[in-house]
From TrEMBL:
Pfam families: CTP_transf_1. Keywords: Membrane, Nucleotidyltransferase, Transferase, Transmembrane, Transmembrane helix. This is Phosphatidate cytidylyltransferase. The chain crosses the membrane at residues 7-29, 49-82, 94-113, 119-140, 147-172, 184-204, 225-243, 249-272. GO terms for molecular function: nucleotidyltransferase activity. The keyword RNA-binding does not apply. The keyword Signal does not apply. It comes from the Bacteria.
Length: 316
């Protein structure tokens, strides 16, 4: 067994151990403090734990399946997220061609370019070519009512759900000296740190939260939760340096940056939900919303993390 496979298995086993402990704690708290489901905080915590189980199992299977499994998993996630996003935006019959192009042309091409490791065109295909051709396809139908809003929403959906999300498996394409065949651990680092930051912000906020950050956007987010969650996740990132090519200091700095991006990404996606008058993006994960609800922080932090790592090693 290679060192990379051994590290990955140990990491997955460790995460499963943490989830088992968290599930037991959640079950005990529910039986004692919320037997009838009346305690919203405990119910929310258990919903998060269930969502984590689903994500860890799916990502673990994809990791063990190798590069193809990871790319296919995130291609499916992009498709599902794009579907959730499109259900909440302003679309008319004239937009059907543009939407079809987004799902069945732009998305497959983006992931094919990733598979082929064509970084140059991969990095500009959606923000340049798709952004130019999407309005052309839409305008050919001749419907100008709310045209700018309609096409901008489709472009934004592509940017978040496909372009940003595809930068998670894009970490597999990085060539880091001395880190060959271990890039899947970079994905693990990104997902674990950002997702734990979300959970820890919630926990710190429930324990010590007094001052709201953005009451209209996300009432549960507090200054105390933000500080406690970001700092805790930064320390966890530094402690996970052994699965990365980074020093503990650099791992901590990168963890700090991606948790900040994840936090502000969550606020942006919350603003879109409030604008649409909905609580969740969808119902894919029972009791805890849609796929975007669980991955909003990750997709905002993924491009930043990818390029920081890529250019750090290109300049080293």
């Amino acid at each position: 067994m290679s060192a990379a496979s051994s590290d990955l298995i140990h990491l997955i086993l460790g995460i499963l151990g943490v989830l088992i402990v968290a599930s037991v704690i959640g079950h005990v708290l529910q039986r004692r403090l919320s037997p009838d489901g009346s305690n919203a905080a405990i119910e929310n915590l258990n919903a998060r734990i269930k969502a984590w189980w689903v994500m860890v199992i799916l990502i673990g299977i994809a990791f063990l399946a190798g590069r193809a499994g990871v790319i296919l998993l995130f291609a499916f996630c992009s498709f599902a997220a794009l579907r959730e996003f499109v259900t909440l935006i302003n679309t008319r019959r004239a937009d059907h061609w543009a939407l079809a192009a987004a799902f069945f042309v732009a998305l497959p091409i983006q992931y094919y370019l990733l598979w082929a490791e064509q970084y140059g065109i991969f990095s500009i295909f959606i923000p340049v070519y798709a952004f130019l051709f999407m309005p052309i396809i839409a305008v050919l139908r001749g419907d100008t009512e709310r045209f700018l809003i309609r096409i901008a929403e489709v472009q934004w959906a592509l940017m978040i759900c496909v372009f940003c999300a595809s930068h998670v498996p894009a970490l597999l394409t990085l060539h880091i000296p001395g880190y060959e065949e271990r890039n899947v651990l970079l994905i693990a680092f990104l997902v674990i740190v950002v997702q734990l930051s979300d959970v820890l912000q919630y926990v710190w906020g429930k324990l010590f939260g007094r001052h709201k950050i953005a009451l209209k956007l996300s009432p549960s987010k507090t200054v105390e939760g933000f500080i406690g969650g970001i700092l805790s996740a930064t320390l966890i990132g530094a402690a996970l340096w052994w699965i990365t090519p980074f020093t503990p200091l650099l791992a901590g700095l990168l963890a700090f940056v991606i948790t900040l991006m994840g936090f502000f990404g969550g606020l942006v996606m919350s603003a879109i939900k409030r604008d649409r008058g909905v609580k969740d993006w969808g119902h894919l994960i029972e009791g805890h919303g849609g796929l975007i609800d669980r991955l909003d922080s990750v997709v905002f932090s993924a491009p930043i993390f990818f390029h920081l790592v890529r250019y750090w090693w290109s300049l080293s």
